[in-house]
Amino acid sequence: MTTALTAATARATVYGYPRQGPRRELKKAIEGYWQGRVSADELRAVAADLRRATWRQLADAGVHEVPTGDFSYYDHVLDTSVMVGAIPARHRAAVDAGPSPSGGCSLDGYFAMARGTQDVAPLEMTKWFDTNYHYLVPELGPGTVFRADSAQQVAELKEALALGHTARPVLVGPVTYLLLAKPAPGVAADFQPLTLLDRLLPVYAEVLADLRAAGAEWVQLDEPALVQDRSPAELNAAARSYRALGALADRPKILVASYFDRLGEALPVLAKAPVEGLGLDFTGPAAANLDDLAAVGGLPGKRLVAGVVDGRNVWINDLEKSLATLGTLLGLADRVDVAASCSLAHVPLDAAAERDLDPQVARWLAFARQKTGEIVTLARGLAQGTDTIAAELAANRADLASRAGSALTRDPAVRARAAAVADTDGRRSQPYPRRAAAQRAHLELPPLPTTTIGSFPQTTALRTARADLRAGRIDTAAYEKRVEAEIREVVSFQEEAGIDVLVHGEPERNDMVQYFAEQLTGYLATRHGWVRSYGTRYVRPPILAGDVSRPGPMTVRWTAYAQSLTPRPVKGMLTGPVTMLAWSFVRDDQPLAETARQVALALRDEVGDLEAAGTPVIQVDEPALRETLPLRAAGRGAYLAWATEAFRLATSGVRPDTQIHTHMCYAEFGDIVQAIDDLDADVISLEAARSHMQVARELAAHGYPRAAGPGVYDIHSPRVPGPGEVAALLHEGLEAIPAERLWVNPDCGLKTRTWPEVRAALGNLVAAAREVRSSLAVDSS
């Protein structure tokens, strides 16, 4: 690119930024508020300080226009529900009482919608498109009445403007909001929330007017749902929405943004809409937006915000490649600004904080701060010419070459083993009916067997011991004694509670992916690479940089120790190959299928060692199988083929009487029931409590032939379900799944819950299982 291709008005912006703070200050303040240690005013002060620090950092880095409205105490979709007044009736009393964040919704009511209370169930939670972020699902029905409450959005805009920033509020768009919603409890399952569009648009109009009055020049409306396959009616709804909003006299300029994939048939709809700007993703599969945009004649007279920096992965940008894309885009819009592909909240805050990484590897990484720098550099090169960024381009070329040529990324032995895999390696030696008979004889379980998903509460003493080991205050022997003590307590409790298939509680694990990543070749772990998964739950996704192998057993010692404490069967617990990829920052220099096969072979070795050590039940969790499903149908067949192959490769080397479990949670399972079947696991446990056994009905409709445990205890809420509530869910499950194939378990692992909650909830779960079991015996007599 030459200076002749520059655009004098090109500027840098972002759609959103990590919310937690460098030391996860927001998490600590919110949890302190829940525990009564932090007041509402103190929580608001922490939040305001974090917002101010983020805006200052972005502005100092050279970002011209900072986002507002991307900050959230729990979830931005929940914030949208508050903004449009879509408050479920059961939460209304709490919402209208107590201290509010900045508007009409009280903090306690807000958190009641997110987490529930002992008396009120929370909103359902599921994955945000194909990311590991979870959003709170709006509950809507024919009687829903929308009311504008823009207090939070206006307050944050005024904060930024008062500090001298050019600010752009970012809101979830009306079409995406309705497409993400579900029918409220008691509403017919076939109700379509999109039919409420004409009621919702006047509320958005009122919010836009409020933001204009508060000083907004631009407002961004995010419509990521439009990158999915959409019907003509849904595309028409998008066209109607932006005709209506664009025709408003009292509004700011509107930037409609979409990301995560190509817009496809929705692109001409938005290109023709009477709005002033469009934000597009030009990374990964969304790179096709470049040709699509040219095909529709570009955006004459409009602003284009070009997402050329990957907002979801941690590898440095190829600056010269991005500049070439930007140069092409200059001829397709009146003004081209530079951004990341989506909000930077999907990556950690600052790679410079990772002091323990190999300096060579550190040069390959860009977290939110570094990506901001890349965006600013690209905008400067676009506006002022490449000569002004010559040093940055030279350094970038060197760093890209360093990664491409590094021996850290390739292991010939791993590649040879993966290439030698045969079709028979991914098949069990016996069909399910024969395996099921062998497992019944081996395990001798009662009808409706009870189990848990794997993890138990991680106590303060346990976290302290792990920190002490890292800091050198205790040695490995002392730490392992602490872990053994924790396992003894977990096993003893499960025996006393009457659980049928036990777990060791995973006290040695910091995270279900990171724990394994730290013991596999090819992975790198961070100390400060926190990313928000939901609410105050943060994870540190490892970085998958090279070929993967297993130097030695990872879980056998602890599983075998737990089994030595009890005559009841103990499950071995592993994380599956797809989830190991999805919940890592995965390498982008080879196909995902190839990386998945390497991980599957490493796990196959672990499964074999667990079986050899006498483990009768082995669970290989794949909660990310649905999450990683391509957003468009055209890519799903190929993905599901290699994803299910990887699971079978990891699990198919065992004897028929070894029972293979898998687990999935917080996703829309209806799209992948055939893939769940293709996994050929003996038992699957799935989240079902918040969705009222929907997945059990989906499995039944498919004719799923194996055992399943739809969850009966929502572990993402502090409320403890009573035995009657659990029994009612079990009866719903029995309407879809025969008793001989129905398991009883929580939705997910218990790591985030407290011991008092777990003791009470699992006691109720066992009591309900026994009650329903007894009723089955009576019915059959």
| Oligomer kind | single chain
Radius of gyration: 26 Å
Low-confidence stretches: none
Mean pLDDT: 94
Cα distance spanning the termini: 82 Å
How many DSSP H or I helices? 28
Structural class: alpha/beta
> Order of strands in the sheet with the most strands?
1-5-7-8-9-10-11
In total, how many beta strands?
A: 20
Roughly how much helix do the residues carry, as a percent range? 40-55%
Give the strand content: 5-15%
Global shape = globular
Give a quick account of the main beta sheet: strands, pairing sense, barrel closure: 7 strands, parallel
Describe this structure in words.
α1 packs antiparallel against α2 (40-61), α12 (319-329) crosses α14 and α27 (723-734) crosses α28 (755-780). The mean pLDDT is 94. β17, α24 (636-651) and β18 (659-664) form a beta-alpha-beta unit. The chain contains 28 helices and 20 strands. Helices cover 42% and strands 12% of the residues. The strands form six sheets. Strands 1-5-7-8-9-10-11 form a seven-stranded parallel beta sheet. With 781 residues, the chain is an alpha/beta fold.
Write a brief structural summary.
It contains 28 helices and 20 strands.
Which key terms come to mind for this protein?
single chain; 781 residues; alpha/beta; 12% strand; 28 helices; five-stranded parallel β-sheet
List strands and helices in order, with pairings.
Blueprint: H1 25-34, H2 40-61, E1 65-68, H3 76-83, H4 92-95, H5 107-115, E2 125-127, E3 134-136, E4 139-140, H6 151-162, E5 166-172, H7 174-180, E6 182-183, H8 197-213, E7 218-222, H9 232-246, E8 253-257, H10 266-272, E9 277-281, H11 289-295, E10 299-309, H12 319-329, E11 333-340, H13 359-362, H14 368-384, H15 390-404, H16 412-419, H17 432-443, H18 460-471, H19 476-497, H20 514-517, E12 523-524, E13 531-534, E14 537-539, E15 543-544, H21 556-564, E16 571-575, H22 577-582, H23 592-612, E17 617-621, H24 636-651, E18 659-664, H25 673-679, E19 683-686, H26 694-702, E20 707-710, H27 723-734, H28 755-780
Parallel strand pairs: 1-5, 4-6, 5-7, 7-8, 8-9, 9-10, 10-11, 16-17, 17-18, 18-19, 19-20
Antiparallel strand pairs: 2-3, 12-15, 13-14
